[in-house]
Amino acid sequence: MSPVTDDPWTEQWRLETGMATAWKPGGDWDFLSNGNHIAVYDKSLKSPTPIQIYRVVDGQPMRTLDLSSPRYIPWGINSTSLFYARGFVDLETGKITEDVWEKEFPTFISDDLIITCSDSRITCSAWDMNDGELSLRWSQKYPGSKARLWQNQHVGDTNSGYLKLQIDNTIHFISLSDGSSHNPQDSKELPTFIAASDGWIRIDRMTEATTLSPDGARTGSFSTPNPFSSHYSPLLITGSGFPTVGELRRAYESQDTSWAQTSVSCASGVPCTLNGKPLSSPADGSCMPAGPNLGDTQNNWTMSPDNRFVIIKRQAAYDQSAVCIIDVTENRTYERQRAIVPRGDLIIAVEGTTLVGYSPARQE
User: Does residue 262 carry a pLDDT above 70?
Assistant: First the structure.
């Protein structure tokens, strides 16, 4: 297997942030992006304008706003707004809306729906968002004392789907339409949940699996081969995107991936394959799964607009960590370290105090 050369993801721009120290995890500053806007912020919030907003114009970032301190560091971003613990900022006008959700915190952020939860004496609220304006959809109380505020998955659309929310050691499946909790399940053994297009697969102790409907109701069970002694499939994609529960079960139970348009197969101690062919990677690369936790990859991918690249980001897209890029036309992988993935054709990495934007070169 030859090493990877001729990386098709080329540097498009460099943005000097002007920060005093190099970026590092848990350091003095950070950045977020939705693809069209970039927010760079000083975590101390001590300067008069600790948040700078850049807009990507003609493929280059242009500084458009210097924001005064909203008293809290940013938590997330969508297409119109930058969110923090007590409110949000309009990315075009800089208007700050504060004290919207009182003692709750953003837990789920999309373009048209925001979920906020308190982290004790649990109350969660759903907010419809339209052109930067919020309206309350529902507010519900739940039993428990501590809610996990981030990396909460959902199945279905934002009107009628379900959010998987962990409170203490219990998983709740929250209806996005009315906030009702369905089929709570114990999570003390740290199960893996894999989101499908029509439900979930719960995996316990790596070999025991349960199929669930979108609201968490049990629909079946099966056993999987031990991933340490057999091949396993960390990434499976259909022509329409996310597989169904039934399709994933066929792959995990009997290793039948014939239905998948894109199938990555791995085994302990040997290189992974893509659609049955060896998958080349950089000589010093490590972006493919280091272990058989299927959820790490299956729950965390996006596709480039031309369907040539699958981008795997094992934490939230706006967390700065390693990004794995799979070129499905060339059976190769590429990597970017300390990066975020605001959209399928843009990766932003950090080098010292400089942000670097990468996009795939156009094919002639």
Answer: yes
Q: Is 107 left (phi over 0), alpha (psi -120 to 50) or beta?
A: alpha
Q: Is the pLDDT of residue 70 over 90?
A: no
Kindly report, residue by residue over 316-339, the tens digit of the pLDDT: 545 667 899 999 999 999 999 899
Which residue did the predictor score with more confidence, 223 or 72?
Answer: 223
Looking at residue 3, what is its pLDDT? 44
> What per-residue string of b and e applies to 178-197 under the rule 16 or more CB within 10 Å gives b?
ebebeebbebeeebbbbbbb
CB atoms within 10 A of CB 84: 22
The DSSP bridge pattern shows strands 309-312 and 301-303 to be antiparallel
- What pLDDT score was predicted for residue 316? 56
pLDDT > 90 in the chain, percent: 64
- Give the global pTM: 0.91
CB 271 within 8 Å of CB 231: no
Residues facing residue 237 across a β-bridge: 262
CA distance readout (Å), 270 to 126, 227, 267, 304? 46, 13, 6, 27
How far does Cα 287 stand from its chain's mean position?
16
3-class SS of residue 231: coil
Eight-state DSSP code of residue 189: T
Q: Output the six-digit token pair for 298.
A: 């299956």
Tell me what the mean pLDDT of segment 63-88 comes to.
89
Residues 6, 334: Cα–Cα separation, whole Å: 10
Q: How many CB atoms lie within 10 A of CB 216?
A: 22
Sheet holding 81-84, edge to edge: 74-77, 81-84, 87-90, 96-98
Cα angle 170, 174, 180; round to 5: 105
pLDDT digits (tens, 9 = 90+) for 123-132: 999 999 998 8
**Residue 225 exposed, middle or buried by CB count within 10 Å (0-12, 13-18, 19+):** middle
pLDDT for the residue numbered 284: 58
Place of tokens 């690369």: 285
Contact (CB, 8 A) for 148 and 166: yes
DSSP SS3 for 265: strand
**Cα-flanking dihedrals φ and ψ of residue 84, to 5°?**
-140, -175
